[in-house]
Structures are given as C-alpha cells and as structure tokens.
Amino acid sequence: MISGKWEGWRKKMEELSLEEQVVKLLQEKKIKISTTESCTGGFLAGTIVNVSGASEVFDEGYITYSNAAKHKILGVKEETLEQYGAVSEETAKEMAEGCAKAAGTQIAVGITGIAGPTGGTKEKPVGLVYMGCYYKEKAKVKKFIFSGGRTQVRKQSVEEALKFILERLKEE
User: Is the pTM of this model over 0.90?
Assistant: First the structure.
C-alpha cells in the first residue's frame, strides 16, 4: 500500500513543471530557499516566484553581478575571486553558502557564469556556468557548458538549477 501511494505521488509530481515541483517539495519539507544569481540576473528567482504559493518558501534573492557585490553581500572571499575568478567552482560554492547564511534559509543556490556573446576566453568560454547548491550544511557544485545565445544560456542555467535543487532536496 505504501509503495502504491509513493508511486501516485511520484506520477503527480512528474506532471508539474520543474519550478512547481521545487515549490511543492519545499512546502512539504517546510523549508525555505534563497537564490543568488550573477549571469542569470534574477531569472531563477523569478521562475520560482511564478508559482502560486512560492511566498511560503521563498523569502530572499540576490543579484550579485559584480565581484564587489559577491564579497559584500555573500562574503565571497576576495582571495577566491582573485585566485579563481568570479566564474569558478570555488566562487559558486561560496556564493551558495553565503546566500543561505545571509538569508537564513536551509537551502540556497548560487549561479555564476558567462552568458555571452562576449566575455569568454579559451579557458572560460561563453556558456560556462557554475552553480552551487547549499543544503544540509554542505555546498555541492556543478559545472556546465551551455550552447546558444545569451538568453538560451540563461534559460538552460535556470532549468539545470531547478533540477539541482530537486536532486539536493531528495537526498537522505
């Protein structure tokens, strides 16, 4: 009987959009989320708050486009920014953790990358995005290299961030 209920819940969740799944799971777990975004410029936060009921689980979001903002608001170390750059695994990790601490949430996502069409280098091409997700006192980071124009890179980043949040929330 329990497995039947689980199967029904899983199918119902699959019928929802990614952002609806995130909000529903946050509501069920009774936890709050915060976001900090660089290359996506608030697109992730906007996608989450498009869902009715998001106000129960989303209190704060930050757009930390500049290095100064990453340092001042999130506490990203100046040494990290100098040594690894704004678009790096290390910065994404510090962004996510700093966001959770600044907002007082149990889960937070930090996104940093190069949306293009300019700004890329051989080492860090256009489409390179790092995202950190802080949950259960630990930040995990994923690296992506997306293709397409600026809008496509931003959209792909938000979609992958939503999947990352769901993945982290389902951890035991």
Answer: yes
